[in-house]
Design goal:
This protein has 14 helices and 14 strands. It is of the alpha+beta class and 434 residues long. The protein has one domain: Cathepsin B, Chain A (Alpha-Beta Complex), CATH 3.90.70. The strands form 4 sheets. Strands 5, 6, 7, 8, 9, 10, 11 and 14 form an 8-stranded mixed β-sheet that branches. Strands 1-2 form a two-stranded antiparallel sheet. A two-stranded antiparallel ribbon has the order 3-4. It is globular, with a radius of gyration of 21 Å.
């Protein structure tokens, strides 16, 4: 079984867009080739809510741009922000950096996400930034969430975080030979790891004090703890049971919207969303039913999350991933896993008519869409609104079904010169009952 298959069947889909990966378990979504400021995008651009002009009416938060390999955190927080916006009517910018901080804390103290490379007697270690939706919601259940403006005030309105990439460089130095966290004993010391992370992220003293007060000096308390439970009353670290959301559920073939808290939709909650495999090359006959599940959830305004494989040679100059574009390139391009939130879709019917993405649709239109053939899924991405090195529709991309179903030639992690056939679309996160 390939590493990808092993990860998929264990529900631990590590995501990444890196050409080469130093460890087999975490494949971090690749950082952009350009650093913050190269495109001079600056603050988040105002984005008009156009859901009433589309087939699906999924409320999205602003498009952001990852700077390190944590697309899975951006997608998961986009999922949360969408459900929160649907409930409150207000868009809240929750901090991807805050969740990333606690991801690194857990990986370092558990020694489960640190890569090692020894050259000439010197050992370099680096934090693995990859993960999964399952890991992201576990972190949120344990540590809650914080608004970006509270965690890093300077980045409250930034499209891309410069602090994340800077913190990654500092923490990798600390993990390597001669650094504060170079030894296993140092990495098991929660207080030491927490303090090094505070300095790496350049957090102000007020936020560091808040986090120590809530979670302990060594992060020993958690919101989901039993004998050592964290509490947070009127502090900036917000547990999931205090975040209001609206979710959807399908019961007896009837869709209802439910007002709840974020804790209710996390694994174990009464309206828990669930991950499901999208049928790959091993079960092509199961694809139509799986696609209908996604469309029904989209038609109910649910922010469905999908994991898929990226080959940048499949991206055309209009912001679409197409198999024909990849074939015309004649070879695979830069590749890796990715996670995004679905936004809309386009369907062609047997009579040749098309229900086009970006056009208003009645309930009858949406119901009829379940009988058609999907041409593409439109996703909200974490690659920024506008950039010089790749086309998009203001940060949204169309994933054509011929590409998502493949097969495409996928490079082996351990041997980049060898390839195997893979179908890019591999996992979907759906509301209960769908």
């Amino acid at each position: 079984m390939s590493t990808l298959d092993l990860l998929r069947h264990s529900r631990w889909l590590a995501l990444g867009l890196a050409l080469t990966v130093s460890a087999p378990v975490f494949m971090g979504c690749a950082p952009d080739d350009m650093t913050a400021g190269d495109d001079d995008e600056g603050a988040l651009a105002p984005q008009e809510d156009t859901t009433s002009e589309e087939i699906a009416n999924v409320l999205q938060s602003a498009v952001r741009r990852q700077s390190i390999g944590n697309c899975w955190i951006y997608a998961t927080l986009g999922w949360v922000e969408s459900m929160n916006k649907l409930r409150t009517g207000v868009e809240t910018n929750y901090s991807e950096s805050y969740v990333t901080f606690w991801d690194w804390f857990g990986k370092i103290t558990n020694n489960s996400g640190v890569s090692t490379e020894t050259t000439g007697g010197t050992t370099r270690r680096s934090i693995q930034t990859g993960g999964s939706w399952q890991l992201a919601v576990t972190l949120i259940r344990q540590r809650g969430m914080m608004k970006e403006g509270d965690f890093i005030a300077d980045e409250a309105t930034a499209e891309m975080s410069a602090r994340q990439a800077a913190a990654e460089r500092v923490i990798n130095e600390a993990l390597s030979d001669g650094g504060e966290l170079a030894t296993p004993e140092a990495r098991r010391d929660g207080t030491r790891v927490f303090n090094v992370l505070v300095r790496a992220w350049n957090l102000n003293s007020s936020i560091a004090t808040t986090m120590r007060n809530v979670f302990g000096n060594g992060g020993e308390r958690r919101f989901d703890g039993y004998s050592n439970r964290a509490t947070s009353t009127r502090t900036r670290a917000v547990p999931p049971n205090r975040i209001q959301i609206r979710t959807q559920q399908l019961v007896n073939n009837s869709v209802t919207a439910v007002n709840a808290t974020l804790a209710d939709v996390l694994p174990g909650g009464q309206y828990a969303w669930r991950a499901a495999d999208y049928p790959g090359l091993w079960n092509t006959a199961g694809r139509p039913a799986a696609m209908r599940r996604m469309l029904r959830a989209l038609n109910a305004d649910a922010p469905v999350v999908v994991s898929w494989l990226v080959d940048f040679n499949a991206l055309d100059n209009a912001g679409s991933f197409r198999l024909s574009q990849l074939q015309s390139a004649g070879r695979p391009g830069r590749q890796g896993g990715h996670m995004t939130v679905l936004h809309d879709y386009q369907v062609r019917f047997s009579d040749g008519t098309v229900l086009a993405a970006g056009t208003p649709a009645s309930p009858a239109d949406r119901e009829r869409a379940l009988t058609g053939t999907v041409e593409f899924l439109r996703v909200k991405n974490s690659w920024g609104v506008s950039r010089s090195d790749r086309a998009s529709m203001q940060g949204y991309y169309d994933l054509h079904l011929d590409y998502l179903h493949g097969p495409i030639a996928w490079s082996s992690e351990s041997n980049p010169m060898s390839t195997r056939n893979e179908a890019p679309l591999n996992e979907m996160i759906l509301p209960p009952g769908f």
